[in-house]
Write a structure and sequence with these properties.
0% strand; 81% helix; single chain; 2 helices; mainly alpha
Length: 43
């Protein structure tokens, strides 16, 4: 159960830090990374 809480906090912090990025195209970069991650997970 501790791992679930730690994972939720880590994901929340990751999302918060992503909002602080100054690059206007960061959302596209994040989406591309997410697509690669999903494709790798399915493979």
């Amino acid at each position: 159960m501790v791992w679930v809480g730690a994972g939720m906090i880590a994901l929340g912090l990751y999302g918060f830090v992503a909002t602080l990025q100054p690059d206007a195209n960061f959302g596209r970069i994040l989406a591309a990374y997410g697509g690669v991650f999903v494709a790798g997970s399915r493979a």
